[in-house]
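Summary for the steering committee. The consortium agreed at its last meeting that each partner would contribute one worked example illustrating the joint modelling workflow. Our contribution is presented below. We chose a case with several input lines so that the handling of multiple components could be demonstrated. No manual editing was applied between input and output; the record is shown as generated.
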Amino acid sequence: MRARRLRTTLAALTALAVVGLSGCGGGDDTASPGSGTSSAGVTGTVTVFAAASLTESFTTIGKDFEAANPGVKVTFSFAGSSALATQINQGAPADVFASAAPTNMKVVTDAGNGDGTPTTFVKNQLVIAVPKGNPNGVTGLTDLTKPDAKVALCAEQVPCGAAAKKALDAANVKVTPVTLEQDVKAALSKVKLGEVDAALVYRTDAKAAAADVDGIEFPESAKAINDYPIILLKNAPNRTAAQAFIAYVLADTGKSVLTATGFQAP
Amino acid sequence: MALLIPATLGMLFLVLPLVGLLARTPWATLPQRLTEPGVLSALRLSIQTATLATLFCVALGVPLAWLLARVPFPGRRVVRAFVTVPLVLPPVVGGVALLLVFGRRGLIGSWLDSTFGITLPFTTTGVVLAEAFVAMPFLIIAVEGALRGSDTRYEEAAATLGAGRWTTFTHVTLPLVAPGIAAGAVLCWARALGEFGATITFAGNFPGRTQTMPLAVYLALETDLEAAIVLSLILLTVSVVILASLRDRWISSP
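What follows is the complete predicted structure of the assembly.
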């Protein structure tokens, strides 16, 4: 019994040490500018605040960017665009902001926290996410109005909810959701868990969760296309690297990753 | 005297955020914001669900606390550890666990759904369950503490005078620990009122049905900082009034 306890303690301590060391590694990158071997002379850590729907594509782009620029580390904070905008305006130390909607970008630029004008880098469209195999045979928005259909939407305050409202209004369809989720990933996870029959999410999110959900395209989504703007932040701690990262996203290097995950070119 | 400085710092640390909230409150628009229908329905739902959750916790938690305090059985320590786990468990983990048990595809939830057509997520009942899961340990700890601190000789005397176990429990034990139960119930209610993580994970967010005050605060923060401040202020006021009015009763009881 005692031996086992000791072993558990040791394992826990080792885990702590590993976490601690890797944490230090990240910190060292910022502390040693100029030590990078990158051709562009880009070093240090770039902190990117990005919409939750960019999680998969930006993670990949971040890794590619790090590989192309040794000495650079990209750290992400993925959350609802509105929450990120609030954090930036409250002084969160970020270099780049990528929003899922121009309205949330405007919150940041209106507060004078953007540097220059935002660039739209991709567009995203809504699909109906249903459990794998589409057990209820959903073919379009009207299927979501059936009285026994459990539907999750995003709250109107977040971009995916605003887009869903626009699409539903355009189709003149009235859906009574069982829940209004705080971001697109939360709505999607309710489908994955099988707690709801359908949710309106971005095509990219449905694609990223293709193992658990099917994405059903519907024509009205064309009326509610989301523009994704990206901007360098005024108080960016690492301007040079941030500019390089934005250029990388806008160039073919980033574009190909984004289109592969289901985004459309602007 | 040496303790005075850290004590003051400690107090400031806890009180300053509340002062910050008060300092940023938009007093001029406060009355009109308070009467917005969304605010009132969220507050009403919060108070209703917290009260129902507390009743649920008292009904199940008091007997459980009695079991833990008075009945020696093998593995009692382990049981005690498990029933108090929600105290330290991140509430969102509690929400996930509840989904996996009571969700539509959960262990018990799928049976409830197929047999009775009952689904718990996205319902007000779901909110009550989420709050009760997180808040019940507060009640159990308070009541168990009170039971352990109370004198068992009264119960023994009642038993020797011919009272049955049930009569002893209802006529002697319960009145003895009533302050402890009241204390636990208040803590439990306050914790249920502030519940966020388990609620949003298990019960979702829908105005009038599952959107309690903490959820409304979080969503308001997405678009309107002032609205979030006003909602926070209401929640703070309700909590402080409740805790302050009952403070002496539960602090002074052992």
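Chain B touches chain A at residues 99, 103-105, 119, 121-122, 200, 204-207, 210-211, 218-219, 221-223, 225 (CB under 8 Å). The longest helix of chain B spans residues 37-70.
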